[in-house]
Amino acid sequence: VNCGLCRKVCPGKSSDYTTCAVENIFFGKSLICLAAQTKDKEILAQSTSGGVVTTLVRNLLRDKIYDAAFLVDTYNHDEETFTKLYTAESDFSNTPKSRYVTANHSRAVRYMLENPDKKLILVGTSCFIQGILKVIAQCKLNRENYFLAGIFCDKTMNYNVWNFFKSIGTDKLYFRTKEQSGWPGNVGLEKDGQKFFLPREVRMYMKDFFCVERCRYCLDKLNQFADISFGDNYTQTPLPAHMDKQAGTSCLIIRTELGAKIFDNYLEEFFTQ
Q: What is the pTM of this model?
């Protein structure tokens, strides 16, 4: 309708890193950094790495601290991938694991505008977190109503990658799954209930062919604007015996007081280092 609002909130147009960068524009501010792994073995097995995001979302909704969350719930990308509204009563079995294609968050934005008093959990890559903060500011929403869980991101891919894998025979694509050999996971394909796997190097190789152009210019790999940033733990720090490295652990960068309060409330749900 040519109102210009989408342009005003688009992180692809501009992002102000001075609001979060302290000494290092590539890292941003932090209160604490740690490695964590959920104690819930079922969630841990389903997750890409340490299962921390799924555990936090489930518990925050269960305890009615937040009203809803918007999450991706499909491994089939025949159509554009949208986030979906989740509540405490929802089945979370299709939410874990990474998707390396772009996700449409317009339903989340519409819900925020129509329900400004609802407390929401919003999970996404750095460009989404930057965009949602612009929506909050532009539409004068209450920032305290939103827990922003940011995912580390080193480039997403366009939907041609789905068309490629579909051409070799799949109706579900798991960009990363620990099912075959543990963390960090291989590519999993599923066709008519039959599963087969490809080395994770295939996924990494595909990124350069199917990368979204804007991702090539992004500085925010560690999701600096989130309340807590989450990603795989590739550090060489030795883990205590009770943390299963083969099952995967998550790196957490707790960036805001809200993020610190939330994680502290559920500290007993996790092994930490």
A: 0.93
